[in-house]
Design goal:
The chain has 505 residues and is an alpha/beta fold. It has four domains: 108 residues, 2-Layer Sandwich (Beta-Lactamase), CATH 3.30.450.20; 77 residues; 159 residues, Histidine kinase-like ATPase, C-terminal domain (Heat Shock Protein 90); 130 residues, 3-Layer(aba) Sandwich (Rossmann fold). Helices cover 43% and strands 24% of the residues. It has 14 helices and 20 strands. It has a five-stranded antiparallel β-sheet, with helices on both faces. A five-stranded mixed β-sheet has the order 7-9-10-12-11, covered by helices on one side. A hairpin with a 2-residue loop joins strand 3 and strand 4. Helix 5 runs antiparallel to helix 6, helix 7 packs parallel to helix 8 and helix 8 runs antiparallel to helix 9.
Length: 505
């Protein structure tokens, strides 16, 4: 045995040489001991064994193709073969000697364990992806299924509150509204926290004027603050501060800060300030200051942990599940900002958000002349005619009530009825729900409506419980002119319609 044979025999890989003859035979002319142990065949000088005598037809077919390719291209070729229920990675290398076209070295490395490990990893990844898909679907359905009934609860309580004359009834209805809104905020916070932590949330950044978001959130909480004796004040020191952020997320962050301030303040006032950062050029600052219970120094960092409050357990003194500030911190960081807090026990707290910002002067909104189609004379009246497509009777009735006196309204419960109505009438605008039960959904129906020549340019708005920002982007990309998420208030709907139709209020 020469030195080369000694080396080959001590290798852990199975090695053999194959001579490719003119008769297209593939003879094995040399092997190492591992080869003989694995295939149980001894090869010596007197042997006349070809690969078909050793391996099964499938393995031989793979080897022959690789050997021919290696012979033709004079380069190394790697293939996978199966021997005795084990997987090998076979490297075929042309031997450059007297007849380089005739002989190849085949080195087979056992990769069975690696393949099994890769298969396990693949299965785990597939299971994780399926779990993620199911969770995302569950969150989407939960979000939709909560928002739709909450739309009716909040809307009906709002309408009854406007019509009620008894002070006690008004107070009770307002409490229903506040409780429903708190339930909605809790739902949104839990869902958004879950999506952010699993990195499923995509950031849809647009230019947002922070003053508009702050004012709208403050207005939502003003009456609630007044009812418990608090002053909720908004100081916009520069209304032209804009930031490239995800509007739904920045709104959620500001909402959680103001919600916390209202929740933890028994008397005094809450001030929300928007200003430029005097110490850092190119940054905007949002501050929410309250005269509430404050936070002890030892718990300052703790309050940003999920499901944590300073007061915990069965004896906790305030409601809430403790995810608001966690969301604020994560949202702020995701959009390139930072959050800080200064607080003193029994004195109050100041939460500060800093965002990269720009100063961009707002353009005044000019309402154009109303198109002829925007108004339809009916019974001597000159009001726009709107079609609501909604399968939930309570929701459609509520929306129709919102529009009473300002618009004429027809209701279609499904796509078939909607298509029938638009073929008969010339509507100024269509409010279209996305989930219409069985049959055609809202996105499909949108395409059918647009195929009608009279509705190519008609404003069609998505009105839905699918309220993630990604949903809004998808709906707008599908061809909707705008979007309103349930639950929405009467004021929100009227403002949206008036601006869409360019009708002066």
């Amino acid at each position: 045995m020469n030195k080369k044979e000694i080396v080959f025999n001590h290798l852990s890989d199975m090695i053999f040489f194959v001579r490719r003859t003119n008769e297209k035979e593939y003879k094995i002319i040399f092997t190492n001991e591992i080869f003989e142990l694995i295939v149980c065949r001894i090869v010596n000088k007197e042997s006349s064994i070809c690969i078909y005598d050793v391996f099964d037809n499938i393995t031989c077919s793979v080897l022959v193709e690789a050997i021919d390719f290696s012979h033709l291209n004079s380069e190394k070729t790697v293939v996978e073969i199966s021997i005795e229920q084990n997987t090998y990675e076979a490297s075929i290398i042309p031997i450059k000697e007297e007849k380089p076209e005739d002989i190849v070295l085949v080195s087979c490395h056992n990769v069975t364990n690696r393949k099994k490990y890769e298969e396990r990893i693949k299965r785990v990844q597939q299971e994780a992806e399926e779990s993620s898909r199911l969770k995302d679907s569950l969150l989407l359905n939960i979000n939709h299924e909560f928002r739709t009934p909450l739309h009716s609860i909040l809307g009906i309580s709002e309408m009854l509150g406007e019509e009620a004359s008894d002070a006690t009834q008004k107070l009770m209805l307002k409490r229903i509204t506040n409780s429903g809104r708190r339930l909605l905020n809790t739902l949104v916070s839990i869902i958004e926290l879950s999506r952010l932590e699993s990195l499923e949330k995509k950031i849809y950044s647009t230019k947002v004027f922070l003053s508009e978001v702050i004012i709208s959130v403050v207005e939502k909480y003003k009456l609630e603050a007044e009812q418990i004796g608090l002053v909720l004040q908004c100081d916009i020191l520069d209304e032209n501060i804009a930031a490239h952020v995800d509007e739904s997320l920045i709104r959620l962050a500001i909402t959680n800060l103001i919600d916390n301030a209202v929740k933890f303040t028994k008397k005094g006032k809450i001030v929300v300030i928007l200003s430029k950062d005097l110490n850092r050029s190119g940054f905007g600052v949002i501050q929410v200051t309250d005269t509430g219970i404050g936070i002890s120094k030892k718990n300052i960092e703790k309050i940003f942990n999920a499901f944590t409050q300073e007061s915990e357990g069965v004896g906790r003194s305030h409601e809430g599940i403790g995810v608001g500030l966690t969301l604020v911190k994560q949202i702020t960081r995701m959009m390139g900002g930072e959050v800080s807090v200064e607080s003193e026990k029994n004195i109050g707290s100041t939460f500060t958000l800093r965002f990269p910002s720009i100063n961009d002067e707002k353009l005044p909104f000019h309402k154009e002349d109303v198109q002829n189609k925007s108004r339809v004379a009916i019974n001597g009246s000159d009001l726009p005619y709107i079609l609501i497509v909604e399968d939930n009777e309570m929701s459609s009735t509520l929306t129709k009530t919102y529009l009473r006196g300002k618009y004429f309204v027809d209701i279609a419960e499904n796509a078939v009825d909607a298509l029938k109505l638009i073929s008969q009438k010339n509507y100024s605008l269509v409010l279209l729900d996305i989930n219409l039960g069985s049959g055609m959904n809202g996105v499909d129906l949108l395409g059918e409506i647009r195929s009608n020549f009279n509705y190519i340019n008609t404003p069609i708005l998505a009105m839905t419980g699918y309220a993630f920002n990604s949903d809004k982007v998808n709906f707008l990309n599908s061809g909707f002119n705008n979007y309103i998420a349930k639950p929405f208030s009467k004021q929100q709907l009227l403002i949206l319609l008036d601006e869409t139709l360019n009708i002066l209020v």
